[in-house]
Q: What sequence folds into this?
């Protein structure tokens, strides 16, 4: 039966039905329609918790997509403060409206036009970049996908990630955080991307990720890999989740 997630404090794991690999259709349950829960990999829940959104903050989810992490951040903020949900691909935001309605959320504003972001410049406590990536961290669930990935696709994603980071930095206030997340296990999309960004932007410095992890998940010191240069990696082997990369940079000036 269902049991608490191993790491994420609010997560519940539901096993497959009769060992055939199929999970129950929980989205058909009245409780789902009432917004009592959302379906999300535990790794995503962990990443949202690490971002550290708190009540009263001003937060920009720069690549909000369907809004899973947006709602997780909103829950951390107890519906107080403001979250601005944006995505360069407007169509990807379509599911967020139903999710907001179901959850009776009151502090999310969906921003579809880049021009509407202008007033947020230098004002955000946290800017979350859940970057488009190869999705290599999800291959445990979709092992056939690795055979479809090409070098050209990887190079395209790397270019997008670099451009998104450079655009997102403008909204972080002095002392605020730029949080970069991928569901990739490739260093080219992760540590190398952050190193290149910092070469271009010396005013952003990694937080103490060991201290951050231990403060959020004190009972699980070995469930993630803490990088020497300042980042966190999740994997099926360590955390029992999809592969995720997390790095929080503080703007010093």
A:
């Amino acid at each position: 039966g269902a049991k608490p997630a191993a790491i994420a404090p609010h997560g519940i794991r539901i096993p497959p039905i009769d060992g055939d690999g199929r999970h129950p259709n929980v989205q058909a349950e009245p409780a789902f329609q009432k917004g009592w829960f959302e379906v999300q990999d535990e790794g995503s829940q962990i990443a949202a918790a690490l971002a550290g959104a708190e009540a009263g903050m001003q937060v920009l989810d720069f690549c909000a997509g369907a809004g899973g992490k947006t709602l997780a951040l909103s829950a951390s903020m107890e519906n107080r403060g403001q979250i601005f949900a944006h995505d360069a691909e407007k169509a990807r935001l379509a599911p967020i409206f139903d999710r907001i309605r179901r959850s009776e959320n009151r502090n999310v504003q969906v921003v579809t036009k880049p021009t509407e972001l202008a007033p947020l410049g230098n004002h955000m406590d946290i800017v979350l970049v859940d970057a488009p990536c190869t999705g290599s961290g999800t291959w445990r669930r979709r092992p056939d996908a690795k055979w479809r990935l090409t070098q050209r696709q990887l190079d395209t994603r790397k270019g997008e990630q670099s451009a998104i980071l450079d655009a997102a930095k403008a909204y972080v206030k002095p002392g605020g955080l730029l949080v970069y997340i991928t569901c990739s296990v490739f260093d080219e999309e992760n540590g190398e991307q952050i190193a290149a960004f910092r070469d271009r932007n010396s005013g952003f410095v990694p937080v103490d990720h060991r201290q951050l992890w231990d403060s959020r998940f004190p009972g699980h010191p070995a469930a993630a890999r803490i990088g020497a240069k300042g980042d966190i990696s999740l994997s099926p082997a360590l955390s029992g989740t999809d592969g995720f990369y997390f790095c929080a940079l503080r703007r010093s000036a």
Remarks:
- The chain has one domain: 41-251.
- The chain is about 25% helix and 20% strand.
- The two ends are 50 Å apart (CA to CA).
